[in-house]
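Late entry, written up from scratch paper. The run itself happened at the end of the previous shift, but nothing got recorded in the book at the time, so transcribing now.
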Amino acid sequence: MSKFVVSARKYRPIRFDEVVGQQHVSQTLKNALQNDHLAHAFLFCGPRGVGKTTCARILAKVLNCTNRTADFEPCDTCDSCKAFNENASFNITELDAASNNSVEHIRTLVEQVRFQPQQGEYKVFIIDEVHMLSQAAFNAFLKTLEEPPSYAIFILATTEKHKIIPTILSRCQIFDFKRIQVQDTVKHLQGICAEEGIEADKDALHIIGQKADGALRDALSIFDRIVSFSGKKITYDDVITNLNVLDYDYFFKVTDAMMVEDLSSLFLIFDKIQKNGFEADLFINGLAEHFRNVLVCKDEATLQLLEVSDNLKERYKNQAKVAPTSFLLSALNIANECDVNYKMARNKRLHVEMALVKMAYINRATTLSQNPIIEKKTADETVVQAKQNISAPVITTQKPVESKPIPTKETTPTPAPAPTTQIPVTPPAEKKASIPVSPPAGKLGLPLSSKYNIASIPKKEDLQSQVNEELAHTNDSISLLNQENLEATWKAYYEKVTSPSVKSVFKHAEVIVVDEDSILIKVGSTMGKGMVQQEYELMNFIRTSLKHPKLILEVEIDASKVPVVAKPKTNKLSSTAEKYNKIIEMNPKVEELRKRFDLKMDKDN
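Output as recorded:
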């Protein structure tokens, strides 16, 4: 059995051209070597697995290579390169600052700097995870880092640049490494697959690249795991099964079901996702990411932001054509609120299902908001009657209609019909001529057809003003608001209250009619005001009793309305004799006890 070498070590770059996704760093270092403009101290900082230590080793290898190529890459044939490849070079020293972070370790390093290289021109010191050095170790390293010998080169690497003291940063040439893009990761994995003879779906490699989150080392570790699971053929299903990733197809199906308001399919898909072991918050986050990707596909300019394979990109573009922007924005907002409140929800499944229901009816809500009804539905009988008249007008026994219909090719003018009894008229079907009928007297209504008598249709503003006038007239005529009725109503409600504390506040409160639409309640304390405001049935009770649906209730604090509690009178006994006589009244045997023992009473002070 041969010894297995992981892909992260086996395919580690040995040339600047092989470094993935860091061309800005590679090209800068090569230009510095070409122009002989090399600094004595470098700081490589960036996320994990992006090539910081790899670039440091390549630079150290190039510096002592005796036969560099024309583009300043190591030759891999000279003695220095061979010694480096075999990890036997005395000119290159690597220090792990995570485990060697004390002052003594730095002093040992400084002592090594004093010795010139035995072979080659430079002595290179690579310090990995340099942010782990202690404060004292940093201070001990400052002088050497600022003024090293001409043959000494320091390369520091860190993932947490903010933890390094400014005096170190000012002495180094800083290179910021970027996260590796998904496309670059996929391209590198495809090269490894070709080298190893592995057949892999491009969609599967895209999932690996996204799961790695910009770290190539993580992508290679995941790749080795998938190869161990799948063998020489890597499929999309194998990757999402092994990595426990939600399939894109779920989100496409969920979005399609929302567009047609298919709640049954939504609930069944969500149930299947949970049965497969995925948490609800993972699903809602993935759904929000899906909506974002669809929104990105709305514009060709932002299509480059989509880091998916070409097949998936085509599916996103097709769904973006049928999904309105208003739907996507509203759905994103709902998904975000669901994610924020997810941890606080007790029934987490119901919490997510309610969010899915809201998303499913977004299009209907948007349609209603864009096509409002002419008159809002209210509880007032006048408006209800007006709508009934519009939907089902009748012919009344009034004068015949004076306006004559305009003759058409199919019909000729006919005389007005004679008055008849009241007969209900069914609204005519579309594309059929209708006889114009005047609305009934004293009612709000519209003609059956505006085709022949458009001028007779009242405007929206006129119709609203008529409704408001009738509402005002109705309210004025039935209102029973006055001081006497208000006090009687208040007393009636007070008698219904069962809580003693609330009953006490209501008993001593004062109610006053302020004007025709508002009343004032005076209570004696802030607590009393809160009790009145918490009586939710009070407002409806007063409005209903006084027949005033628009009545406004205001509460005010008046210290004079505090309930006065009478203190019980007590008969205070002043002298000792009075106290003794009171005791004898309560228990006559006390006197017998005093006489038997010949006791005497104390005198008053």
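Residues 182 and 258 are 30 Å apart (CA to CA).
(Scratch paper discarded after transcription.)
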